[in-house]
Amino acid sequence: MIAIFVRSLLSGAVVSGTPLLYATLAEVIGQRAGVVNLGLEGVMLVGAVTGFVTMVHTGSAAAGVLAAALAGAALNALFAWLVIDRRANQLATGLALMFAGVGLSALLGARYVGRPITGLPELPLPGLASIPVLGPALFTHDLLVYAAVPIAIAAHWALFSTRWGLAVRAVGENPVAAFAAGRNPRVLQYQALLLAGALGGIAGAYLSIGVAKTWAEWMTAGRGFIAVALVIFARWRPLRAVAGAALFGGAIALQLLLQTRGVPVSSFLLDMLPYVLSLAVLAAWGGSGRRAAPASLGRVFQGSQ
Amino acid sequence: MTSNPGGHAVKARAIVTVLLVALLLYPAAAPSQGKLTVGILHIGSITDAGYNQAHAEGIQVMKKNLPEVEVIEVENVPEGADAERLMESMIQRGARLIIPASFGYLEPALRVAQRHPDVKFAHPGGYKRLPNLTTYWASTPEAFYLLGMAAGKVTKTNKIGYVVALPISFFLANINAFELGARAVNPKVETRVVFTGTFLDPAKEATAAAALLDQGADVLGVIVDSPITVVQTAEKRGAYSVGYHYLGAQKFAPKGWISGVAFTWGNLYTRFARQVMDGTFKSENILGSLNDDLLVMAPFGPAVPADTAGLVNAKRAELTAGKAHPFTGPLKDNTGVERVKAGEVFPITDLGKMNWLVEGVVGQPR
Q1: Is the CB of A12 less than 8 angstroms away from the CB of B211?
Q2: Domain B13-138+265-288 has CATH 3.40.50.2300
Q3: pLDDT, averaged across chain B
Q4: Is B237 within 8 Å of chain A by CB?
Q5: The complex's ipTM?
Q6: What CATH architecture applies to the domain B141-256+301-362?
Q7: How does B324-343 read in b/e, with b if 16+ C-beta sit within 10 Å?
Q8: Quick check: do B13-138+265-288 and B141-256+301-362 share a fold?
């Protein structure tokens, strides 16, 4: 019984945490370059619908994921143009982008609600999948799940161990200094936002073709905003994002699982569990360490004028 | 009475704004004499294989019966001011019958109806009426009792899982009836309920369904707007499923389908339209049942043996003839408190007060 509980909890945590991880990584990369994108929810939705529609027509999961990444990047390119070239306010533009994404995805997906697809194939990892409890819980998923943590490690490496990452972070901290040092903040912010858009699109695609295997309007149900909060939780670090997504995803899985076991607690209270846990962890960490946010977050770089 | 009470917190406000602008730009057609225009507002998508599609297909049936009737149909309308504006705009375009097809449209509909006494309204599940606003719904516990009987015979693990949006009395009543039906044929059956807290979050529904299956359930039921995700999840894992709202859900579970209960609004909508056209529309509280044409049981799937089907159909005859009642005492709730005394029944008209889960259901009623 304990083994079943643990297996179910871990498996549910992975399924609930994976889209949050992709989305949080997207926002971490963008914010490291100094850009807050509150439109992540819209980017995810456009990715979700594009991935689903592509899969309906091609039957190919790979094509679906690729199309979702491209669509997410395209929407974020529009956002980048507005906030970098047109110097629009990031928060207002982000919210507008969110609503645009909601409307656009509903429009694109209107004729696809209720269409059956096979979804991402489940690929049990040879060897690992036969480990008792852990195998079925962690190693019997699809490729997007297996890729999520390696992508987080890659993002960490790219941000903290490459010249490009150093430059991106420099732009996020002080674009004027980065510019003076011969870096082009505009180009770096574009690169970061395109990458973020692709990851946001994949986060959405995982929901539509990985988990639910269906498209429904606003099926992200606020996960884009949870991811923005998880960035703060993760202190703008990709590897901590893994911990944050795992904790939050685990809390979602736990509250559903506790209900199936008939624990005598209201489902309304259990529904708060992920948020309560996050608050508890934030409180426990509170005040420790340096200020983590990029110093120029949300500011518009006025160029060399 | 209701299945879709105000829980749609988040809805695509942006979409409806676009739609409203489009509607306003649309040349206002002069209301043509003698011809009826019907306006219908949906809370979600009309292809959701669930709540909304059931209403949309009702409108299709009405159009087939009355080809001269024109229809203005808008999907994804948020409850509140947007719905109110849209109804006003429909009236400007000549609509004389409006069906605001979600529980949460009741208040906006009442306001619009008061301003336009010449326009008729029909609201599903409403608990308030006006001379020009009628309400309708169909009583579902009898049908859920029958679904429970079929599922109770089919289950091998004696565990049934239900994914439900919110602990609302009408949903609790359906689950109670289901468990009582299942127990009537198989005293060991236990129904485990998970509330997702929302009418539409397919990814969460999938996770909840997986958790129930992990706990040993081999039959899944669902009370959210669209049954697709839960029914698909059950099918993929080799479990059985029962549907709700719309007959077409069966196509998502060709192997594991047991049965379902669905609303068929077509004849009622045809009746409303005829009444408005010939001036006989009157405000009443219509509560349909398996006896009439508002509620149907889906065909049994291949998982249901013939003798079980016979058993369920025999009980159905008793229930519809009034010889049996889904909530016949003695009934205890799942904390051991007696709720219905021996020899008494819990009246179907009091379902709004059913705030407990019956013995045998694992779950929290609030």
Answers
A1: yes
A2: yes
A3: 89
A4: no
A5: 0.90
A6: 3-Layer(aba) Sandwich (3.40)
A7: bbbbeeebebbeeeebbeee
A8: yes
